User: Fold this.
Amino acid sequence: GENVEQHPSTLSVQEGDSAVIKCTYSDSASNYFPWYKQELGKRPQLIIDIRSNVGEKKDQRIAVTLNKTAKHFSLHITETQPEDSAVYFCAASMYGGSQGNLIFGKGTKLSVKP
Amino acid sequence: EAGVAQSPRYKIIEKRQSVAFWCNPISGHATLYWYQQILGQGPKLLIQFQNNGVVDDSQLPKDRFSAERLKGVDSTLKIQPAKLEDSAVYLCASSLADRVETQYFGPGTRLLVL
Assistant:
């Protein structure tokens, strides 16, 4: 089955710096890669996603890149702010079918220091 | 629109007791999921429903866990009897039937088994 590895497990940056979180997946059939942000004690919230027919997607200060050949994808946050502090999870799945099993990485705790 | 609702938010029980969690998905979402999130890890799918039918329950420990969605809307997840290792956050998520990869999570029920 699918396996998703996520690095680093913790990341500390200064406000205004960029943050990069990387994930690798094992199943080449996976074609949908969402990123979720989870603040302490709150629900995971979808912040951006990418499908395998696209190499990069941007939404304001966040972007996701995908390398299908290498089977890895990354989340980039620019101009980080203290409110970006949270645990970020990557996941892999397949769209177009009936099964929606999201396979999650173990998460990255991002701390943005003012 | 209203999000996914879950109750209770917190539950403390002793091992070998039983517990039940309730979920109300986003209106119009035919697909409902239960995930288990152990501290420090990403969510892991337990069961997926499409309307009132089970799509995937391959990772549900069926000797102690059960779930139902009798009328295709609300769902209940039960653990009986609970073990110490069941301590986790139980997240409910929902999606449209034709967009199963785009899932919206509820706030979760935090379970502590003593």
About this structure: The CA atoms of residues 65 and 79 of chain B lie 5 Å apart. The two ends of chain B are 37 Å apart (CA to CA).
